[in-house]
Amino acid sequence: MDDDSLDKAFAALADPVRRAIVARLSRGPATLGELAEPFDITLQAVSKHIGVLESAGLVWRTREAQRRPVHLDPASLERLTSWIDRYRLEIEARYRRLDAVLAEHSRTPPEKEKEQ
Fold this sequence. Notes:
Elements: H1 3-13, H2 16-25, H3 32-36, H4 43-55, E1 59-61, E2 70-72, H5 74-106, H6 110-115
Antiparallel strand pairs: 1-2
Helix pairs in contact: 1-4
């Protein structure tokens, strides 16, 4: 995933309404009206949020007769998760090394035990 795609995706997910929309879409496709139900905002505002998510590549719309359901793109979320995991794993490895160093330093040498 290139930097521009990451920037767009994280910027899109920075808004709590858009995160809630993504959470709802994780359970399955929904229409604009269904996505707007839990919010006290206009359909037009929800449509703009969908547009931001669409331009970030996180969702797409289809047409089924009169319905235009919005679908979540799980592959996009997986790419974001993979990007985050790469850094999480590096940091975890650093913490494991630090734990090993601290454990080594916390051991009391045998000569010191006899003196006590």
